[in-house]
Amino acid sequence: MADVDVAKQSYAELISLRARLEKEIEEKRDEELKVLADGYAKKLQAAGFSVEEGIKAMLPYTEAKLRGSAAISTSPARVLYRDPANPENTWSGRGQPARWLSQYIAAGRQREEFRVES
Length: 118
Fold this sequence. Notes:
The chain is mainly alpha-helical. It folds into two domains: 6-67; 81-114. It contains three helices and two strands; from the N terminus they run H-H-E-E-H. The protein has a two-stranded antiparallel ribbon with strand order 1-2. The longest helix has 36 residues, at 11-46. It is flat and about 65 Å long. The N and C termini lie far apart (65 Å). The model has no long low-confidence stretch (mean pLDDT 88). InterPro entries: H-NS_C_dom, H-NS_C_dom_sf.
């Protein structure tokens, strides 16, 4: 692809250019990934391992990526606030306040009135 002065391109030409760039990027990505995979396979085989063993060794990294960071807790947050009128209404104190709590605050009540004793 030759150098393109994008400032002189029309909107339609820029959209077309973007589509061509996205296609080229995807092709280059696939090429580079194949080169890396081939190199990885050759290193495994030179060290006396099969490709399958190498893939199996990579699974913990893949699974951690799918789950997200191991530092992120998957357990529910502890309840810090509870609605006395409906004990099923709770809020952990994370993110935006629960709607029921916001309504009480709008009516002049204090957030701490609803704090759960720990």
